[in-house]
Amino acid sequence: MIHLQTDRLFLRDWEERDLGPFAAMNADPRVMEFFPSLCSRQESDEMVARLRQSIAENGFGFFALESRDSAEFIGFTGLFRPRFQAHFMPAVEIGWRLKADAWGQGYASEAARACLCHGFGCLGLEEVVAFTAAVNRRSIAVMERIGMTRRPDDDFEHPKLPERHPLRPHVLYRISRA
After folding, report:
1. Domain carrying residue 77
2. What is 88-144 written as a DSSP string?
3. Span 76-113, pLDDT tens digits
4. DSSP 3-state assignment of 173?
5. What is the pLDDT of residues 118-163, one digit of tens each?
6. Which residues neighbour 76 within 8 Å (Cβ) at sequence distance 6 or greater?
7. Which domain CATH number covers 133?
8. pTM score > 0.85 for this model?
């Protein structure tokens, strides 16, 4: 089922054909540079099961991202309810992860804008957040391109990463319906 579409992309339910490309993406050191570790095939498959469950339970989640031209899986984008303790929780997060060969083509921004329209329109959300490791300039650039703003006093230490881990310092961006 296609949930959202843009001029170049389908944001859709996960399919069995996505498992291999998703696992390859999660095993790519370039894609996973700002994550604590690469993912095994089993970890990737388990993640897809959780993402499917989120979509089924909430009507939204991180959707598989497909090129309309090639029908190729290129990553994921969507809205998600993160599950950890932080000063801004509970919240709905917007996020994305794309295969390295899909970078630099505007896909993340295009898909994220569609998700924001859906979140503020159909879902009636008042605010959406995004966060990443403070050193992840590519994701920060997407956040800024889609109109999100950062207040440095909102930045936080990610509680799922150990003390002094180089990726623990995170920036938080927000955007409101207004």
Report:
1. 2-176
2. T-S--EEEEEE-GGGTTSSHHHHHHHHHHHHHHTTS--SEEEEEEETT-HHHHHHHH
3. 999 999 999 999 999 999 999 999 999 999 999 999 99
4. strand
5. 999 999 999 999 999 999 999 999 999 999 999 999 999 999 999 9
6. 22, 51, 62, 63, 64, 65, 95, 96, 97
7. 3.40.630.30
8. yes
